[in-house]
Amino acid sequence: MENLAFYSIGSLLAASLAWLALRKGWLNGNGALAAFAIGSLYWWVGGLWTSTALITFFLLGSLSSRINPRSRDRGGRSAAQVLANGLPPVLGMLACGPAFLLGALTAATADTLASEIGGRAPWAWRLGRGRVAPGTNAAVSQLGSLALLAGAALLALWALPVGLPFLPVFSAGVFGAFLDTLTGPLEERLSWWNNNVNNTVAVIAAGLLACWLVG
């Protein structure tokens, strides 16, 4: 009965948050269903710790997209977007431990804030192109870089309750976010390499690096 209650609480919490996000326009219909499944899985795997880390990432990303008039996510994130950022961390935790999950989520948060808040910068810069409009794929800006570091630092704080060192998790998250930028131009060269693939590769790389650094 205790296990049944534990799993039920997780599913109820995930359903409530997915419904709220759907009502707010942060997720579309399929995105809300994916968020319910991912949210339930996070609770079942790690309880409150993993769930609050996921919720923090989701809230920061959703709120930052609301203030970015150039955001691609203002119409609500899709199931593919939810799965690309949310599924690799929790699966990696099952294989490698909490360092993977937190490194991956830290990278996802840092990258999302860099993109959304950086979209409000007056200008940006892209390797090989020079100065470009903010919001350009694979471009960086001073404002976006500061948001990247702030997002990574915030999520890396979740290392402390479970006895993980802050700096390796933070560093892995920053690495993953920068990797996402470096591999971004592949979206223009490979038909199958879209933003969701790019995000998945970046968060997996960050999770693996966090596992390696933590040891």
**Helical stretch count?**
7
The quaternary structure here is single chain
**Widest β-sheet, arrangement of strands:** 1-2
How far is it from the N-terminal to the C-terminal residue, by CA?
A: 37 Å
Q: Please state the average pLDDT score.
A: 94
Give the helices and strands as they follow along the chain: HHHHEEHHH
- Determine the structural class based on helices, strands and strand pairing: mainly alpha
Radius of gyration: 17 Å
Proportion of residues in extended strands: under 5%
Inertia-based shape: globular
Account of the 3D structure:
With 215 residues, the chain is mainly alpha-helical. It has one domain. It has seven helices and two strands. It has helices at 2-24, 29-66, 79-96, 98-118, 142-156, 166-183, 195-214; strands at 124-126, 130-132. Strand 1 (124-126) and strand 2 (130-132) form a beta hairpin. Helix 4 (98-118) packs antiparallel against helix 5 (142-156). The longest helix is centred in the first third of the chain and has 38 residues, at 29-66. It is globular. The mean pLDDT is 94.
Write the layout of secondary structure elements.
Elements: H1 2-24, H2 29-66, H3 79-96, H4 98-118, E1 124-126, E2 130-132, H5 142-156, H6 166-183, H7 195-214
Antiparallel strand pairs: 1-2
